[in-house]
Amino acid sequence: MERLILIKYGELTTKKENRKMFIKLLANNIKSLLSDYNFNMVYDRVRMYITCDDEDIDSIASKLSKIFGIHSVVICHKTNNDTNEIKEKISEILKKETFKTFKVETKRADKRFEISSMDFNNVIGGHVLRNFDCKVDVHNPDLRIHIEIRPEGTFIYLNEIAGSGGYPVGVQGKGLLMLSGGIDSPVAGYLALKRGIDIDCLYFEAPPHTSVEAKNKVIKLADIINEYSGNIKVHVVPFTKIQEEIYKNCPSDYNITIMRRMMYRIAEKYAKKIKAHAIINGESVGQVASQTLTSMYVINSVTNMPVIRPVACMDKLEIIDISNKIGTYETSILPFEDCCTIFLPRHPVINPNLDKCIKYENSFDYESLIDETINNIEVVSNLKGEDFSSIL
């Protein structure tokens, strides 16, 4: 019995002139994420088909459900567009199922097939009733028998695995995600990937004030969201010197604001270096002092690069729900502090003044420190190769 995987495209089917390019990019993303498997792929403008070793089919289907640009994944059985062969195949499939009620749903994409979809529902429904102890229930059946009659053959399946939707990763170019060890930024990265943005991650560490566990935690988070991309690198920024200069030369209530401004300056310069077109972060309006509208305006004023904030208007519970869904929550809540929290003042300013920020920043030579910092960024590309035992 031949089983294969049928992929139904997601939002990219709304595209016209660019549809071919979207589908080709989706195919390349699938090949990259399934590089450990032996499989064959063919596709056209409406469907994609994958054949593989039968023992791998469930594992591959699960991985495909995390690839953006896919509406749904179906493990199906293929036969010829012949009524008797379709009946035989359905009988083979249903012998392995337990059910009392059923419904047949036919889609006839091949109009050369002489029987209409509605009439074929009746043909197959009658066949099932004659050969199995069951009844038809069109509203709430135990089993739905899906039949797609296409020019390349007839595809029969019982279940459909929901895909992740969205656009294929990379179709919108590259963005640089400011990834911390918290709950929000991994969710922001996931949502950016869903809109077709290929991301790299920028993590600010400040040893000895931040620990190696905090760094490994962030790399683990990147590894988790990499299941939706397969192409993520983590760029680790040595932020100690800049952070210490801020706390030496600036009033404590402005420390976070000025620290964030420095981070944005670094992110913009480094994004240009790696040919990214936008900065992405997990800021949510009003959640902390640096995320009031006034603070965001003052912090954002150091860059002309687009800043995308996917979770900006979500409340914390909505963000946590997505974090649980994508598997980052348990890692995000591990108790290792990043450089945004270790020196958090008791009363950070929530309505900072831009002129004051400029005045305080001019008290030390931050531009040369930024250049030095960028020149010493560490790139982690083998996320799977890292040792996370210390945080698990």
Alpha-carbon distance between the two ends: 42 Å
In oligomeric terms, what are we looking at? Answer: single chain
The ordered H/E elements are: EHEEHEHEHEEEEEHEHEHHEHEHHHHE
CATH-defined superfamily of the largest domain: HUPs
Largest sheet: 9 strands, mixed
| CATH domain topology of the largest domain | Rossmann fold
**Total DSSP helices:** 13
**CA radius of gyration:** 26 Å
CATH architecture descriptor name of the largest domain: 3-Layer(aba) Sandwich
Question: Briefly, what CATH class of the largest domain?
Answer: Alpha Beta
Q: Outline the low-pLDDT stretches.
A: none
As a percent range, the share of helical residues equals 25-40%
Description:
There is one protein chain. Helices cover 37% and strands 21% of the residues. It has 392 residues and is an alpha/beta fold. It folds into two domains: 3-164, 2-Layer Sandwich (VC0802-like); 174-391, Rossmann fold (3-Layer(aba) Sandwich).
List the helices and strands and how they pair.
Blueprint: E1 3-9, H1 19-33, E2 39-43, E3 47-52, H2 57-64, E4 70-79, H3 83-94, E5 101-108, H4 117-131, E6 135-136, E7 143-150, E8 153-157, E9 161-165, E10 174-178, H5 184-194, E11 198-205, H6 212-225, E12 234-238, H7 240-249, H8 255-273, E13 279-280, H9 293-300, E14 307-308, H10 316-326, H11 329-332, H12 354-361, H13 366-375, E15 378-380
Parallel strand pairs: 5-6, 5-7, 10-11, 10-13, 11-12, 13-14
Antiparallel strand pairs: 1-3, 1-4, 2-3, 4-8, 4-9, 7-8, 12-15
